[in-house]
Specification:
Layout: E1 2-6, H1 11-14, E2 21-25, H2 50-67
Length: 70
């Protein structure tokens, strides 16, 4: 299982597929993912909180446990 974190890039295009994977998208950014052109003080990915990652992890774990053989 994986939890992928994305800044301004399109998670729908690059995230792993399947039920054992989750992705979180950061905030929109005017640089459109071009780091050399980014003028933002905080990276787009900084909008993803540790709590969001924790919640995604728990959701994957719960899903995996419910599908595990008895």
């Amino acid at each position: 299982p994986t939890i992928s974190l994305f800044g301004p890039n399109a998670a729908q295009c690059w995230a792993p597929l399947g039920a054992t994977h989750a992705w979180l998208q950061g905030s929109p950014c005017s640089c459109s993912g071009q780091l050399n052109a980014c003028q933002a003080r905080n990276a787009c990915i900084a909008a993803i909180t540790p709590r969001q990652v924790h919640d995604a992890f728990l959701q994957l774990l719960t899903s995996a446990r419910s599908k595990a053989p008895g």
